[in-house]
Amino acid sequence: MTASTVKTQRQPIVPLLPMPLLSTPEAAFAARQRQRDQSSHPELWNLLDAVKDPEVPVLSLWDLGVLCDVQQDAQAKVSVTLTPTYSGCPALETMQADVAAQLQQAGFEHYEIHIRLAPAWTTDALSPNGRRQLQAYGIAPPLQDSCALAAALTPEAGIECPHCHSDNTRRISEFGSTACKALFQCLDCAEPFDYFKQL
Amino acid sequence: MDNREAHVADSQAETLRAATVSYAVRLGDDALVLGHRLSEWCSRGPFLEEDLALQNVALDYLGRARMYYSYAAELEGQGRTEDDFAYRRDARQFSNLLIHELPRGDFAFTMVRQLLVDVFNTLWLEQMQRSADQTLAGVAAKGIKETRYHLRRSHEWALRLGDGTPESQQRMQQAVADLWGYTHEMFEMDTLEQSLVAAGIAVDPRPLRAPWLQQVTSILTQATLSVPQDGWAVRGGRSGYHTENLGHLLMELQSVHRAYPGVSW
User: Fold this and answer.
1) What is the ipTM metric for this complex?
2) The pTM is what?
3) Residue A183: what are its φ and ψ, rounded to 5°?
4) Measured between beta carbons, which residues in chain B are less than 8 angstroms from residue A13?
């Protein structure tokens, strides 16, 4: 492998045409699943399932919804498209490096990693499996009622505790350990916990 | 199309491209400078959760700055990178609005500034999502979601501190008075932006003043704060005429790059 054939960092930001607006989280994920199912390179998607979110290491980039597309052209060059969760998400560069490492390990020499901004990432893109894994990891998954964007902010109470499943909880802070999480406390088991906030 | 017409079309496209580069740099400067001011609160917040919240907001702005600068660099095509825009320009070459560079002041000043800017950004980003420039529209589509969270927080703080103790109320009122004259610049437009508005790339900020004033008035009134009369106004940021504060900010922000050019770690 020569350095000149491998591009991992500082790819230009490529906006693609926005996908049609999807109204429910189920529909949003179903559209992603369909795209994956119809891919002519399912093995590449499966390969990248091993790449996890560096900050929530139980979630794959697929489950998080950050992995938008995987393609391979006639010259066998792989193109991976990622989208950032938040504008300033510091994990994005690690994700790119991890995708690159995974591809290299599997013997792919020619690949490109693109960053796509539109359509913007939303928590609706989380997979059902990802939601379960978040819960098991101790992070409450985002609410699923994104009909009204204005209401899609973090509630003050009532997020189900991922430990004891009580909904007798209160919000401590709208901004938690990372941009994508808010901080809650359970008033029954007294444990503080992260809530993966809706976006 | 004959050669002459093709030439004219090329030169118009070139002018528009150059203007878009400048516009992206302006927006990057706004985001970088305000993000840096917020980051100065790190470890100085009134309590841990608030400290984290301020850094989360700072990070959102830093992310926007990187997207704007990277796009400017790509569009310019001269081999510059986002770092060249952030670290290798002097104050005179920065084109951020002055309101973003004012020192962070006390917590009241910081939150009032966020409130005034957040209300503006919700209105402005909403429209920027429909920019004819797909990258700028994409950055706005991400930013608007983050900004709604920002505004809810600055709104809550305005109520809590405005309608708080006599001291917090007085500090909030003072901050509103100190900042008011810097808000007018947000709603002004020079010829560069006019050309981009005509091309559907930039948003005309002038019509945003009325809904901004209405929202800000409603929040301040709810917070038992009075809305100042329009009087003095300071401007010049877009042309590179800054307050002395920007030089101090850049001295710190750029110090490592200035001492060790091209350093990486």
Assistant:
1) 0.73
2) 0.86
3) -105, 130
4) 67, 70-71, 74, 135, 138
